[in-house]
Amino acid sequence: MIISTDTPATAPRLGVAESHALMAGVTRAASTVILGKESVVRLALTCLIARGHLLIEDLPGVGKTTLSHVLANTLGLSFQRIQFTSDLLPADILGVSVFSRDLGAFDFHPGPIFSQLILADEVNRATPRTQSALLEAMEERQVTIDGKSRPLPNPFFVIATQNPSHHAGTFPLPESQLDRFNMCLQVGYPDSKAERELLRGRDRRDLLGEIPPVLTVEQLTAIQAAAERVTTADALLDYLQDLLEFSRVSSDYAPGLSPRAGLAILRSARAWALLQGRDHVLPEDIQTVLPGVVNHRLNHIGGGADSASPAAALIEQVPVP
User: Fold this and answer.
1) How do residues 284-300 score in pLDDT, each as one tens digit?
2) Is 168 helix (H, G, I), strand (E, B) or coil?
3) What's the whole-model pTM score?
4) Which of the four CATH numbers 1.10.3660.10, 2.40.37.10, 3.30.1540.20, 3.40.50.300 does domain 16-220 have?
5) Mean of the pLDDT values across residues 218-241?
6) Sequential DSSP letters for 59-105
7) In the beta sheet, which residues pair with residue 119?
């Protein structure tokens, strides 16, 4: 059954304080499973509130898949996990039309893409042809099959995980695919305290079934709308445009940031400000979300200690107005 694609008519209008309190509850619930990674959880929630898609790139075994399950449970969203492999086909993701003798016509059988939260696990293990099946879904919130456009559920989020590119059996994601991801995060190893608790405690997978939804779909939709109402002063937009322009004219970067990247920074900064309980964006909000939004889009070729972090170099080189 395909989930309704309409925005809930009964969605409440939430203010900043109410949205902040609800998202704080989501963060607390998720942090009981994802130990010692509250900042990662907050950034992942920032991406979802900004109506973006999330790419998690890290070593196997650090909790990438568990984080996706936790978000689906706490946000009360329908969830499908797609394991990407080299023999996966686009039809395995999107669905297929099968001739029905009873109907005397082709009957469409929807694929797992018709869920509110999709985990594309190890997305770079699939071939470029299969990876491209996500492009229209992530950008247009619809898929076209047999010449017919079919809308996807609302809300619709893709969380993709990928192994490091030097691992065997991986296909690099093309720039057009990377640009569809609002943010790219790394989970990283836990600190010693969190790891000790992890070793002594219960299996994290056993805990997943005990986490009830903290939000309803209507509340999540209202929180997304509240984030769009967070104000951004002209001086903040000047700062954002200075960052974009510097990335385009400086010989240290190739290529520069696109307008879509600029919108991703703005939406993410608004969502992060909301998570902090504010109704306006500060320069620190832009600087906080910048690494997750631009490091997978921008190559810093200028050398030096910040070569691996284009965002850090931009923050250092572009002054706040």
Assistant:
1) 999 999 999 999 888 77
2) coil
3) 0.87
4) 3.40.50.300
5) 94
6) -TTSSHHHHHHHHHHHHT--EEEEE--TT--HHHHHEEEEEETTTTE
7) 81, 159
